[in-house]
Design brief:
279 residues; alpha/beta; 9-stranded mixed beta sheet; 6 helices; 9 strands; 25% helix; 22% strand
Length: 279
């Protein structure tokens, strides 16, 4: 009989050369989350329940009236990118207008990443928010093409890489990241007629591969017919987990009302943590 193989314990072994290393690093206790939802269905509120200090990069107007509820309980560094395009703007003019706004957005994002890594002086940022990723993707397209339609598929190769690499940078930090997305009506082309028809469903507006890059995808929604309740503003709001890389067992988890928050999502992804860890 030949010699029996001798196994090694977890985290024990010898090097094999090259750039390989034993995979024994503890998981980072942070979440990179893509949040989908229709207007006024709790996306911004959910994002602002993430731990502070946080950076809030805003292309939208949805933060108004919501962010004020949180700015006294945590430090929020807000940056707004006002962009106005008129019907008289041609392709070149649009690129001239939008290009600087996108570059400012990227510069601010890099500052937030450095603060999250603690490589620069100042408070350590614990969470980053993009509001919205849908509009951020549009701004990048306008900055590079000056238009959103009639762009040849091969022209998207560099654009996709630019956006994808930007998202990936947060994984080099211990920070949480929440990317909000609008929903748009889903269309399906009829193979016989070639015409598009609405399916009655909705899909994410924005970069198509975002869902593959993030760790968790959630949907914010609200019960129909629920009237606003000043005594319980969270009544009727939901956060439903669509998929989760770290803990696939929570797919379909529905957090309702006062539990429709980032800390409650986090303790379900990481059951060994507590709500206090995510405050």
């Amino acid at each position: 009989m030949g010699k029996e193989a001798v196994g090694v314990g977890v985290g024990v072994g010898v090097g094999i050369g090259g750039t390989f290393q034993i995979a024994n690093q503890p998981p980072k206790r942070r979440l990179v989350v893509a949040v989908d939802g229709l207007e006024k269905e709790g996306k911004t509120n959910f994002a602002l329940t993430a731990p502070g200090p946080m950076t809030y990069q805003n292309f939208d107007i949805g933060a108004e009236g919501v962010i004020e509820k949180f700015q006294t309980s945590k430090i929020i560094y807000r940056a707004d990118y006002g962009i106005v395009i008129t019907k008289d703007d041609n392709q070149a003019t649009i690129m001239e207008k939008i290009g600087p706004a996108w570059e400012t957005f990227v510069k601010d994002y890099k500052i937030a990443l450095n603060q999250a890594k603690g490589v620069t002086k100042g408070p350590v940022v614990r969470s980053l928010v993009w509001d919205t990723g849908s509009e951020g993707w549009e701004v990048l397209r306008l900055a590079r093409f000056g238009k959103l339609t009639q762009v040849m598929p091969h022209n998207y190769t560099a654009l996709n890489s630019e956006y994808r690499n930007l998202l990936r940078e947060v994984f080099d930090t211990p920070a949480n990241m929440i990317i909000l997305h609008k929903l748009k009506k889903e269309w399906l082309n009829d193979p016989l007629t070639g015409k598009g028809n609405k399916t009655g469903n909705y899909e994410r507006a924005g970069y198509a591969d975002t869902g593959f890059l993030v760790q968790v995808n959630v949907l914010c929604w609200r019960d129909k017919g629920v009237k606003p309740n000043p005594l319980d503003p969270s009544a009727g709001f939901h956060v439903t987990v669509q998929n989760c890389r770290q803990n696939p067992g929570i797919v379909g988890l529905d957090l309702e009302g006062g539990m429709a928050t980032f800390p409650w999502l986090a303790v379900n992804v990481y059951p060994e943590t507590s709500l206090e860890d995510w405050q």
